[in-house]
User: Fold these one by one.
Assistant:
Number 1:
Amino acid sequence: MPEAITPAAPAVAAAIVPAAFADAEKALLAPNYPLPRLHLVSGRGARVLDVAGGEYLDFVSGIAVNAFGHAPKGLADALSSQLGTLGHVSNLFANTPGIELAQALTAATGYDRAFFCNSGTEGIEAALKFARARALKKGQKGRDLLAFKGGFHGRTGFALSATYTPSYREPFLPLIPGIRFADYNDVSALGSVLDSEVCGVLVEPIQGESGAVPATRDFLLALRTRTTALGAALIFDEVQSGMGRGGHFLAQEHFGVKGDMTVMSKALGAGLPIAAVLMTSDVADALAPGMHGCTFGGNPLCATAANWALSQVLAPGFLEQVRRSAKHLAQGMDALAAKHAGVREARGLGLLRAIELAPDAAFDAPALIAAARERGLLLVRGGERAVRVLPPLNVTLDELNEALSILDAALTHLGAPEGARS
Ligand SMILES: Cc1ncc(COP(=O)(O)O)c(C=O)c1O
């Protein structure tokens, strides 16, 4: 049995009933999220408690951030010790955890250098800038970038410009010019879109926000071969798939293809905001002092969190265990897809998985998420018709089985004719 969670609501919780929190959230926060949201107050491992005392198995994991569950043992001590020693110094000074992090990441991945910033989108901004800077340094005239339909790279200017989803882009047009889009996994389309005008290609080895859609090996190999021939930079967005979520330290290892740059974030900081752009020395050679920067990037506190996270993911046997759990989850989800007519397919890589609803399903993704939540399981949408399943990487087989049986019950409920629903 998992350890019981002690509700650790904030000091104001005793004085304000949950409904008042919901009203406050609705009245006070910018309305860019659907408000009010489920209000979580404490967690332990794969479980969280809401403000009203409801307990959930958390298979959202802070959108693929909490790789070690909630309140993992050792993290708080490491952070409080670092914060009591040196919390922040800015990019004007070196700090020991930051250097150690660069050492650990380059050793784990074979990339040569790292740039640190705070979030996935910022990492993508940096990588796209670095691709253009590299072209400039090499005297290549092409400045275009190629990204893919279904990809998600973030909400800031450059990252949003490389994200295809019209509803994310349209309110903010005009975006940064010079970005082309092609169909994901379509090798035959590359001939017409990937030419000498392109200085960088940005791709997720598995499209997370689109609902855990893996690349094919042929597609990634074709991108590698063509970018190498053209002298363009291949940039892997491993913000979601990296740090073991795809079953390897980086998901690109699964395909045997290495980029010129890789962006990591999410689980890298174990809940603290940090991103890393890993690069070859060929990319680093194009950068010079003053060209790019970030006040908080790789600060002692966030770098300590990342060093702690790396010590967990790179511990002997951890990634093998992730792959064993992933196999178990995949088999369970395949069985659900075979059993329920409302599911078109189950798919994914490692513990980045999703079920896509059948085109004629009588329910939609938000309804499935709500039905799972009512039964004690938190899930997150992926794309229009898919629901992602993102357990912590150290999830137990019992927790996976529990989640699968809740999903089964939710699908059975939604699949029944309306009058006959449990
Ligand atoms: C693949 C990928 N890239 C970039 C981002 C943007 O990261 P952030 O939300 O930290 O800016 C995300 C976020 O979901 C992502 O999944």
Number 2:
Amino acid sequence: MAYQTLYRKYRPQTFDEVKGQDAIVRVLKNQINNNRLSHAYLFVGTRGTGKTSIAKLFARAINCENPKDGSPCNECASCKAALNGTSMNVIEMDAASNNGVDHVRRIIDEIAYSPVSGKYFVYIVDEVHMFSPNAFNALLKTLEEPPSYVIFILATTEIESIPITVLSRCQRYDFRRIDIATMVGRMRHITDSEGIEIDDRALSYIATCGEGSMRDSLSLLDRCVTFYDGKRISYDDALEVLGSVDTAVYASMLGHIMNSDVTGAINLLQEAMMRGGELTYFVSDFVMYLRNLMLVQVTDDIENTVNMSSDNIAILKEAAQNISPETVMRYIRVFSELSRDMNYTPQKQVLVEMAIVRVCTPDMEEPDLSSFGERISNLEEKVKNGIKTVPAGAPLVSGAPVSPGSPATAPDEKPQVLMPALPGEIQAVVDNWKVIREQLKETDMLLFNQIRKARVSAENDLLVIVFNSEIPYNIACSDISKDSLNEVFEKTLGSKVRFEMRLLKPEQTYSDGGYADILANINFEVEEI
Ligand SMILES: [Zn+2]
């Protein structure tokens, strides 16, 4: 029999086996038990968090002849057909390859008549954000007046690309990234069932590499198991398989880029693809490599910040000496953007090659004049104003006007930033800051260290995190950091918080910018930095 990947083999068959999405499972089970189903569901979340697995379970459960506490029995004719992929009731489609209006019209034709057997037609549309505008329009008409026997489950990793008209017709479920402990627990269950011997530390390293995605973690586990066929897997073994091989490839990719060797870089990429690599992973792993490189440049305690063997850290340190932090950051920017853009196009290879050409030939890039222009206008203003005074009647930073005739601020006195009353969501952040901080320390030590150096302020209902130096600011602006912060907010406050990172202009102070310290009244225990 062909080898079945662990992810497929251990796809949850009942709701009890789903790990890490308890709230969603509870709601869906209730709906099934009480027969209060919606006609359109939207499952949102990063890859590998269980969207498709839960959609399939749900589709089977509502057509099952003998459901057990909301879960499918997996034994009746309807369940078996769905499990074999021969069901007429459960239809899966991938919008990435079926994104045209014709594909949606075909669905509309199919649902003109009620199902011959089973209760519902369930359409599971994966990557629904890939639909063309016309396809969305056609879908919308069906969502407005759906036949009673049709249920749509739309899954997406890109909620921003879903038209609001479609959003408003769906019940939305946000899938969380799965935490390390849950992932380790699930993997331990699987390795025990498979008779695979592996150390705890190795599992938790694999879970960390999986970044909240069960699918990614299991496929990494697969890699280790295949490599150490039958042998007990230690932490060092896992590092060996998941770390060092890649590091070498990425180090030589970086070498080609730094030498402006486009051909060498593209050849290397093609070799990696021929050896079975996947473009999307290649790019995101390369970003991680660059991130580690940057960390080596800015952190003293690198051994505890990245999961790497000391040999690899030594190699990384050597590579870090030959490249400036600014250049590393430029590469990170280009490749993170690339990583995001790759979700939108089937022409992934072309995009990657374009990015390589772009970083190999910096002259082709649009010069970034924005910060340059800003500095000139600051200088101009200083020259024009001559001596720094506060004109009478000019508002203070907090918005309180200075009464005419009041003396100008003494030169060495900082204008006082008054604290306005905070709106509910920002006050919640302040009230829970200690917990938020602890969570962040656990999930993203790097970001925690940067935010500790920043000032946390607010503008109306926008949380503003202000930095006075560029490196911590750039770290905090990365997608990885933003994801960590979003996750911590959702976990501690149960809701999203709008936030923005800001960087002070050269020589500007927090007070100059009007950034009140909203955490000023919180006492933190003294800790060494
Ligand atoms: Zn059944």
